[in-house]
Amino acid sequence: MEITGRILAILPMQSGTSARGEWKKQEYVIEHSLDQQYPRKMCFNLWGDNIDKFNIQQGQEVTVSFDIDCREYNGRWYNDIRAWRVVPQTNSVPPQQPVAPDFGQQGLGDVPTYAAPAAPASSQMASAEDAASDLPF
């Protein structure tokens, strides 16, 4: 299955030792159906090396491929939503990671511009003619 949405929360990492060795698990909350009046939330998890491999950031928009499994423990049933692939959306930038301003190029994203406001077209024409008459040649 697959879902696209924005990462709302990153829960604390869990780790331990089992009969098979060391393990670690991280859970994430994703909000999907962003275009609807009542967006839905889902908690999914990543295991082992996938945590570092996908490097999910809060606020990031991602597409998550996952499997759903259910297991019984002491008479109760638990769902497990385990992600196996996370692909960041190309148009998203996590809000926690500040974008370094590039002052060499104006008009990019949150880069401040310090240009004066444009003058009306009629005054631009007059100032262009005045500038041409001030030339020494």
Summarize the SSE layout with pairings.
Elements: E1 2-10, E2 14-18, E3 21-32, E4 40-47, H1 50-54, E5 61-73, E6 76-88, H2 121-133
Antiparallel strand pairs: 1-3, 1-5, 2-3, 3-4, 5-6
How would you sum up this structure, described in words?
The protein is mainly beta. The chain is 13% helix and 44% strand. Strands 1, 2, 3, 4, 5 and 6 form a 6-stranded antiparallel sheet that branches. It has helices at residues 50-54, 121-133; strands at residues 2-10, 14-18, 21-32, 40-47, 61-73, 76-88. It contains 2 helices and 6 strands, in the order E-E-E-E-H-E-E-H. The protein has a domain at 1-91: Nucleic acid-binding proteins (OB fold (Dihydrolipoamide Acetyltransferase, E2P)), CATH 2.40.50.140.
Distance between the termini: 73 Å
Order of helices and strands: EEEEHEEH
User: Which regions are unreliable across 5 or more consecutive residues at pLDDT < 50?
Assistant: 113-117
Helix/strand/pairing class, anyone? mainly beta
Number of strands: 6
**CATH class categorisation of the domain at 1-91:** Mainly Beta
Given the structure, what is the number of helices?
2
CATH A-level architecture of the domain at 1-91 = Beta Barrel
CA-based shape: elongated
Q: Taking all residues together, what is the mean pLDDT?
A: 79
In short:
With 137 residues, this protein is mainly beta. It contains 2 helices and 6 strands, in the order ββββαββα. The chain has a domain of 91 residues: OB fold (Dihydrolipoamide Acetyltransferase, E2P), CATH 2.40.50.
